[in-house]
């Protein structure tokens, strides 16, 4: 599709010899919100990793329009608990670049997202000292503070209370309003209902895109 900034074409993937995805075709346009649904083990996280480029397809291809900036919030993030990172440092990583120091705009964006996600008071705490929901809000802040064209989010709100979930959805809507796209894996019908399209992985390794 011409207007898509990120596409998967006839993508297949396997872990060792075990096939997980086959014949996946998905196009992501600017400003689109796509929900990835399907049972545990159907391949949602795997597909997000392929879209993000942290895994490579065994068949087919993933194409990113040149210059497209991607932000990935993985589902499995336990490795980070082994680090001594504080909440503030973890969010700053979202704005980190090898080319320059954090600018005033970067610092403002970091302060704002920490306030919006109600983690500013936790700034000096280490990640491993947080509750599950506080930790998840910190990782969401790290993803959403990035100035991305596509946000790839793997069950972002699964650990969150209703109020925090609402705040995340507001932040996502703001980013979409300025042209960013969101691909979100979720088991929450209220969350998937916010999407323009649902892409359902039915576990038979043949994808189904259901337009609402
Ligand atoms: N690192 C791995 N090595 C081998 N098999 C894996 C690996 N990661 C995932 N799998 C397998 O690939 C399949 C798809 O896993 P994936 O994590 O993509 O599913 P999912 O749809 O995200 O599930 P969930 O809803 O539980 O998060 C599963 O059958 C899983 O057992
Ligand atoms: Mg998953």
Task: Walk me through the structure.
It is a single chain. By secondary structure, the protein is an alpha/beta fold. The chain has one domain: Rossmann fold, CATH 3.40.50.300. 29% of the residues lie in helices and 28% in strands. The protein has 6 helices and 9 strands; from the N terminus they run E-E-E-H-E-E-H-H-H-E-H-E-H-E-E. The protein has helices at residues 44-52, 87-92, 104-116, 132-144, 162-177, 189-192; strands at 4-15, 18-29, 33-37, 59-64, 70-73, 150-154, 181-185, 197-201, 207-211. The strands form 2 sheets. It has a 6-stranded mixed beta sheet, with helices on both faces. A 3-stranded antiparallel beta sheet has the order 2-1-4, with helices on one face. A hairpin with a 2-residue loop joins strand 1 (4-15) and strand 2. The longest helix is centred in the C-terminal third of the chain and has 16 residues, at 162-177. The chain is globular. The model has no long low-confidence stretch (mean pLDDT 94). Bound molecules: adenosine-5'-triphosphate and magnesium ion.
Mind telling me the CATH superfamily name? Answer: P-loop containing nucleotide triphosphate hydrolases
Strand content: 25-35%
Q: Give unreliable regions as ranges.
A: none
Q: Could you report the average pLDDT, rounded to the nearest whole number?
A: 94
Distance between the termini: 18 Å
> Cα-atom Rg, whole angstroms?
17 Å
CATH overall fold name: Rossmann fold
Number of helices: 6
Compute the number of strand runs: 9
Q: Major sheet, described briefly?
A: 6 strands, mixed
Principal-axes geometry comes out as globular
